[in-house]
Amino acid sequence: MPFLQLKDGTELYYQDQGSGKPLLMIHGVWMSSRFFKEQVPFFQQKYRVINLDLRGHGQSSKTEDGHTVAQYARDAAEVIDLLQLEDVTLLGWSMGAFVIWEYLHQFGEEKVKATVIVDELASDFKWDDFEIGAFDLPALTGMMREIQTNQEGLLRGFIPLMFKEEVEEEELAWMIEETTKVPASVASAILFDQSIIDCRPYLPSITVPTLLCFGREEKLIPLAAGEHLKNEIPNSQLEVFESSCHCPFLEESERFNKVVDSFIASSHK
Fold first, then answer.
1. At the fourth CATH level, which superfamily is domain 3-267?
2. What is the pLDDT of residues 36-56, one digit of tens each?
3. Which Pfam family is an annotated match for this chain, by its short name (predicted)?
4. pLDDT value at 1 more than 80
5. According to the model, what pLDDT value does residue 269 have?
6. Which residues pair with 237 in a beta bridge?
Protein backbone atom coordinates (compact mmCIF):
# COMPACT_ATOMS: atom_id res chain seq x y z
CA MET A 1 0.00 0.00 0.00
CA PRO A 2 1.30 3.50 -0.77
CA PHE A 3 2.32 5.64 2.18
CA LEU A 4 3.95 9.04 2.53
CA GLN A 5 6.30 9.45 5.49
CA LEU A 6 6.18 12.86 7.14
CA LYS A 7 9.07 14.57 8.92
CA ASP A 8 7.88 13.37 12.33
CA GLY A 9 7.69 9.75 11.14
CA THR A 10 3.93 9.65 10.65
CA GLU A 11 2.90 7.53 7.67
CA LEU A 12 -0.10 8.74 5.69
CA TYR A 13 -1.94 6.31 3.44
CA TYR A 14 -2.76 7.86 0.07
CA GLN A 15 -3.89 7.11 -3.45
CA ASP A 16 -2.34 9.00 -6.36
CA GLN A 17 -4.12 8.25 -9.61
CA GLY A 18 -4.61 9.85 -13.01
CA SER A 19 -2.75 12.79 -14.53
CA GLY A 20 -3.34 16.46 -15.14
CA LYS A 21 -4.16 19.26 -12.73
CA PRO A 22 -4.01 17.94 -9.14
CA LEU A 23 -7.08 17.45 -6.97
CA LEU A 24 -6.39 16.75 -3.28
CA MET A 25 -9.38 15.40 -1.35
CA ILE A 26 -9.59 15.68 2.45
CA HIS A 27 -12.21 13.72 4.37
CA GLY A 28 -14.19 14.57 7.50
CA VAL A 29 -13.60 13.78 11.17
CA TRP A 30 -13.41 10.01 11.90
CA MET A 31 -13.94 9.25 8.21
CA SER A 32 -11.40 8.14 5.58
CA SER A 33 -10.43 8.34 1.92
CA ARG A 34 -12.85 5.48 1.22
CA PHE A 35 -15.79 7.88 1.47
CA PHE A 36 -14.68 9.39 -1.86
CA LYS A 37 -15.03 6.05 -3.65
CA GLU A 38 -17.46 7.55 -6.19
CA GLN A 39 -15.11 10.42 -7.02
CA VAL A 40 -11.75 8.77 -7.71
CA PRO A 41 -12.79 6.73 -10.80
CA PHE A 42 -14.49 9.79 -12.29
CA PHE A 43 -11.88 12.45 -11.65
CA GLN A 44 -8.81 10.33 -12.42
CA GLN A 45 -9.88 10.36 -16.07
CA LYS A 46 -9.06 14.09 -16.28
CA TYR A 47 -7.06 15.02 -13.18
CA ARG A 48 -4.31 13.79 -10.90
CA VAL A 49 -6.37 12.70 -7.90
CA ILE A 50 -4.72 12.47 -4.48
CA ASN A 51 -6.96 10.88 -1.86
CA LEU A 52 -5.46 10.47 1.61
CA ASP A 53 -6.23 9.33 5.13
CA LEU A 54 -5.41 11.96 7.73
CA ARG A 55 -3.18 10.91 10.64
CA GLY A 56 -5.06 8.69 13.08
CA HIS A 57 -7.69 7.89 10.44
CA GLY A 58 -8.19 5.04 7.99
CA GLN A 59 -4.95 3.25 7.19
CA SER A 60 -2.63 6.04 8.31
CA SER A 61 -0.45 5.95 11.45
CA LYS A 62 -2.38 5.96 14.71
CA THR A 63 -0.17 8.58 16.32
CA GLU A 64 -0.77 9.59 19.92
CA ASP A 65 -0.21 13.27 19.18
CA GLY A 66 -0.87 15.85 16.50
CA HIS A 67 -4.65 15.57 16.44
CA THR A 68 -5.55 19.19 15.80
CA VAL A 69 -6.83 20.86 12.68
CA ALA A 70 -3.70 23.01 12.62
CA GLN A 71 -1.47 19.91 12.54
CA TYR A 72 -3.60 18.23 9.90
CA ALA A 73 -3.09 21.36 7.79
CA ARG A 74 0.68 21.09 8.28
CA ASP A 75 0.44 17.44 7.24
CA ALA A 76 -1.42 18.50 4.08
CA ALA A 77 1.32 21.02 3.36
CA GLU A 78 3.93 18.27 3.62
CA VAL A 79 1.90 16.10 1.25
CA ILE A 80 1.73 18.95 -1.26
CA ASP A 81 5.49 19.45 -1.00
CA LEU A 82 6.38 15.75 -1.13
CA LEU A 83 4.24 15.21 -4.21
CA GLN A 84 5.42 18.52 -5.73
CA LEU A 85 1.88 19.72 -6.36
CA GLU A 86 1.23 23.08 -8.01
CA ASP A 87 -2.07 24.75 -8.89
CA VAL A 88 -3.87 22.21 -6.71
CA THR A 89 -7.61 22.18 -6.13
CA LEU A 90 -8.32 21.37 -2.48
CA LEU A 91 -11.58 19.55 -1.79
CA GLY A 92 -12.58 19.32 1.86
CA TRP A 93 -15.64 17.62 3.27
CA SER A 94 -16.85 18.59 6.76
CA MET A 95 -13.72 18.82 8.95
CA GLY A 96 -11.71 18.71 5.72
CA ALA A 97 -12.95 22.26 5.11
CA PHE A 98 -11.36 23.39 8.37
CA VAL A 99 -8.10 21.74 7.27
CA ILE A 100 -8.24 23.73 4.03
CA TRP A 101 -8.95 27.04 5.75
CA GLU A 102 -6.20 26.42 8.29
CA TYR A 103 -3.82 25.49 5.48
CA LEU A 104 -4.58 28.75 3.67
CA HIS A 105 -4.13 30.66 6.93
CA GLN A 106 -0.73 29.09 7.61
CA PHE A 107 0.70 28.71 4.11
CA GLY A 108 -1.20 31.07 1.84
CA GLU A 109 -2.57 30.46 -1.65
CA GLU A 110 0.66 30.17 -3.64
CA LYS A 111 0.18 26.49 -4.53
CA VAL A 112 -3.64 26.50 -4.51
CA LYS A 113 -5.74 27.15 -7.59
CA ALA A 114 -9.22 26.65 -6.11
CA THR A 115 -11.10 25.10 -3.20
CA VAL A 116 -14.24 22.99 -2.92
CA ILE A 117 -15.98 23.08 0.45
CA VAL A 118 -18.55 20.38 1.21
CA ASP A 119 -21.02 20.88 4.06
CA GLU A 120 -19.22 22.74 6.80
CA LEU A 121 -19.71 25.80 8.95
CA ALA A 122 -17.19 28.55 9.56
CA SER A 123 -17.21 27.08 13.09
CA ASP A 124 -19.07 24.06 14.46
CA PHE A 125 -19.43 25.70 17.86
CA LYS A 126 -22.41 27.79 18.91
CA TRP A 127 -20.53 30.90 19.96
CA ASP A 128 -22.53 33.75 21.50
CA ASP A 129 -22.33 35.60 18.17
CA PHE A 130 -22.73 32.49 15.96
CA GLU A 131 -26.11 30.89 16.57
CA ILE A 132 -26.02 28.55 13.55
CA GLY A 133 -23.21 26.48 15.10
CA ALA A 134 -23.80 22.73 15.33
CA PHE A 135 -22.65 22.08 18.91
CA ASP A 136 -22.96 23.70 22.30
CA LEU A 137 -20.74 22.62 25.20
CA PRO A 138 -23.15 20.01 26.68
CA ALA A 139 -23.62 18.33 23.29
CA LEU A 140 -19.88 18.29 22.60
CA THR A 141 -19.07 16.98 26.08
CA GLY A 142 -21.69 14.27 25.77
CA MET A 143 -20.29 13.05 22.46
CA MET A 144 -16.73 13.00 23.76
CA ARG A 145 -17.79 10.92 26.76
CA GLU A 146 -19.77 8.49 24.65
CA ILE A 147 -16.79 7.97 22.35
CA GLN A 148 -14.90 6.74 25.40
CA THR A 149 -17.60 4.34 26.54
CA ASN A 150 -19.51 3.28 23.41
CA GLN A 151 -17.68 4.39 20.25
CA GLU A 152 -19.43 2.02 17.84
CA GLY A 153 -22.83 2.76 19.35
CA LEU A 154 -22.25 6.48 18.90
CA LEU A 155 -21.25 5.96 15.27
CA ARG A 156 -24.30 3.80 14.57
CA GLY A 157 -26.43 6.71 15.70
CA PHE A 158 -24.33 9.43 14.08
CA ILE A 159 -23.67 8.08 10.58
CA PRO A 160 -27.37 7.83 9.56
CA LEU A 161 -27.67 11.54 10.37
CA MET A 162 -25.32 12.21 7.44
CA PHE A 163 -27.83 10.93 4.88
CA LYS A 164 -31.28 11.95 3.73
CA GLU A 165 -32.46 8.38 3.13
CA GLU A 166 -32.14 5.39 5.42
CA VAL A 167 -28.69 3.79 5.15
CA GLU A 168 -28.76 0.13 4.17
CA GLU A 169 -26.99 -2.22 6.57
CA GLU A 170 -24.37 -3.19 3.98
CA GLU A 171 -23.45 0.47 3.46
CA LEU A 172 -23.51 1.20 7.17
CA ALA A 173 -21.21 -1.78 7.80
CA TRP A 174 -18.28 -0.45 5.73
CA MET A 175 -18.72 3.03 7.20
CA ILE A 176 -18.60 1.62 10.72
CA GLU A 177 -15.54 -0.40 9.73
CA GLU A 178 -13.77 2.72 8.51
CA THR A 179 -14.73 5.03 11.36
CA THR A 180 -13.83 2.54 14.11
CA LYS A 181 -10.27 2.42 12.76
CA VAL A 182 -9.84 5.71 14.64
CA PRO A 183 -8.83 4.94 18.26
CA ALA A 184 -11.26 6.36 20.81
CA SER A 185 -8.54 8.57 22.28
CA VAL A 186 -7.87 10.10 18.86
CA ALA A 187 -11.57 10.36 18.02
CA SER A 188 -12.41 12.41 21.10
CA ALA A 189 -9.29 14.61 20.79
CA ILE A 190 -9.91 15.64 17.20
CA LEU A 191 -13.66 15.99 17.74
CA PHE A 192 -12.97 18.59 20.41
CA ASP A 193 -10.45 20.56 18.36
CA GLN A 194 -12.45 20.57 15.15
CA SER A 195 -15.61 21.53 17.02
CA ILE A 196 -14.19 24.64 18.64
CA ILE A 197 -11.97 25.97 15.84
CA ASP A 198 -13.33 29.26 14.54
CA CYS A 199 -12.34 30.01 10.96
CA ARG A 200 -14.50 33.12 10.58
CA PRO A 201 -11.47 35.47 10.71
CA TYR A 202 -9.84 33.57 7.79
CA LEU A 203 -12.69 33.73 5.29
CA PRO A 204 -12.54 37.33 3.94
CA SER A 205 -8.90 36.95 2.93
CA ILE A 206 -9.51 33.89 0.71
CA THR A 207 -9.16 34.99 -2.92
CA VAL A 208 -9.01 31.71 -4.87
CA PRO A 209 -12.26 30.53 -6.50
CA THR A 210 -14.36 28.57 -4.01
CA LEU A 211 -17.23 26.18 -4.68
CA LEU A 212 -19.56 25.60 -1.74
CA CYS A 213 -21.53 22.33 -1.93
CA PHE A 214 -24.40 21.89 0.54
CA GLY A 215 -27.24 19.42 0.91
CA ARG A 216 -30.72 20.84 1.17
CA GLU A 217 -31.84 18.05 3.53
CA GLU A 218 -29.09 18.58 6.13
CA LYS A 219 -29.62 17.15 9.62
CA LEU A 220 -26.24 18.32 10.94
CA ILE A 221 -25.13 21.50 9.14
CA PRO A 222 -27.80 24.08 8.21
CA LEU A 223 -27.97 25.44 4.69
CA ALA A 224 -27.57 28.84 6.33
CA ALA A 225 -23.93 27.84 6.85
CA GLY A 226 -23.41 27.79 3.10
CA GLU A 227 -25.12 31.13 2.68
CA HIS A 228 -22.93 32.58 5.43
CA LEU A 229 -19.78 31.30 3.71
CA LYS A 230 -20.90 32.70 0.36
CA ASN A 231 -21.28 36.12 1.96
CA GLU A 232 -17.89 35.94 3.70
CA ILE A 233 -15.64 34.35 1.03
CA PRO A 234 -15.21 36.91 -1.77
CA ASN A 235 -14.83 34.66 -4.83
CA SER A 236 -17.30 31.92 -3.92
CA GLN A 237 -20.40 30.28 -5.35
CA LEU A 238 -22.99 28.12 -3.61
CA GLU A 239 -24.36 24.91 -5.12
CA VAL A 240 -27.30 23.27 -3.33
CA PHE A 241 -27.96 19.54 -3.71
CA GLU A 242 -31.69 19.14 -3.29
CA SER A 243 -31.72 15.40 -2.51
CA SER A 244 -28.72 15.28 -0.20
CA CYS A 245 -27.90 15.65 3.46
CA HIS A 246 -24.24 15.76 4.60
CA CYS A 247 -22.77 13.59 1.81
CA PRO A 248 -23.81 14.92 -1.63
CA PHE A 249 -20.77 13.17 -3.15
CA LEU A 250 -22.41 9.84 -2.19
CA GLU A 251 -26.08 10.77 -2.29
CA GLU A 252 -25.96 12.59 -5.64
CA SER A 253 -22.55 11.44 -6.81
CA GLU A 254 -23.11 11.84 -10.56
CA ARG A 255 -24.31 15.42 -10.26
CA PHE A 256 -21.70 16.24 -7.62
CA ASN A 257 -18.89 15.01 -9.87
CA LYS A 258 -20.15 16.99 -12.85
CA VAL A 259 -20.58 20.19 -10.84
CA VAL A 260 -17.09 19.93 -9.34
CA ASP A 261 -15.57 19.02 -12.70
CA SER A 262 -17.14 22.08 -14.33
CA PHE A 263 -15.92 24.29 -11.48
CA ILE A 264 -12.35 23.00 -11.68
CA ALA A 265 -12.30 23.48 -15.44
CA SER A 266 -13.55 27.05 -15.14
CA SER A 267 -11.07 27.92 -12.37
CA HIS A 268 -8.14 26.87 -14.57
CA LYS A 269 -9.08 29.05 -17.55
1. Alpha/Beta hydrolase fold, catalytic domain (3.40.50.1820)
2. 999 999 999 999 999 999 999
3. Abhydrolase_1
4. no
5. 77
6. 211
